């Protein structure tokens, strides 16, 4: 199992809508995540900095393939069309990232 944490900004004017959407994530999006071995997925909001922190656990064996399957899913692509414009990627993110990856420096079971 691999724990993954990511961060991104959010447009403060879109926080209410982002929260509304995530209170009822489309079942097909959730099913795709589960099929792609993503579990224990949470998104946290930090105001007033307007940051989103995402955490999940990956339980598969080929994250690149599972991530590509998520990205290729037509329903997930529609979901991203709604959520993506609300997000503000960090200027310091790595090339090719939307959400910026984070390094785990501590864990306690």
Order of helices and strands: EHHEEHHEE
Q: Helical content, roughly?
A: 25-40%
Q: Can you tell me the overall shape? A: globular
Average pLDDT number: 97
From the N-terminal CA to the C-terminal CA, the straight-line distance is 13 Å
What is the CATH T-level topology? Alpha-Beta Plaits
CATH class assignment: Alpha Beta
Could you say which structural class the secondary elements and strand pairing correspond to? alpha+beta
* Unreliable spans: none
What is the number of independent domains?
1
Number of helices: 4
Please provide the count of β strands: 5
Walk me through the structure.
With about 110 residues, the protein is α+β, with helices and mostly antiparallel strands. It has a single domain, classed as Alpha-Beta Plaits (2-Layer Sandwich). The chain contains four helices and five strands, in the order E-H-H-E-E-H-H-E-E. Strands 1, 2, 3, 4 and 5 form a five-stranded antiparallel β-sheet that branches. It is globular and about 40 Å long.
Topology:
Elements: E1 2-10, H1 15-22, H2 27-35, E2 38-46, E3 51-58, H3 63-72, H4 74-83, E4 87-88, E5 100-101
Antiparallel strand pairs: 1-3, 1-4, 1-5, 2-3
Summarize the structure.
The protein is an alpha+beta fold and 109 residues long. The chain has helices spanning 15-22, 27-35, 63-72, 74-83, and strands spanning 2-10, 38-46, 51-58, 87-88, 100-101.
Keywords:
Alpha-Beta Plaits, alpha+beta, 5 strands, 109 residues
């Amino acid at each position: 199992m691999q724990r993954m944490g990511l961060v991104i900004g959010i447009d403060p004017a879109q926080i209410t809508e982002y929260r509304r959407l995530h209170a009822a994530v489309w079942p097909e999006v959730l099913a795709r995540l589960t099929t792609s071995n993503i579990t224990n997925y949470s998104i946290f909001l930090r105001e007033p900095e307007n940051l989103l922190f995402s955490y999940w656990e990956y339980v598969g064996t080929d994250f690149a393939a599972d991530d590509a399957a998520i990205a290729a899913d037509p329903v997930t692509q529609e979901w991203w069309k709604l959520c993506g414009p609300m997000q503000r990627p960090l200027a310091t993110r790595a090339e090719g990232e939307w959400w910026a990856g984070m390094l785990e420096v501590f864990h306690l079971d």
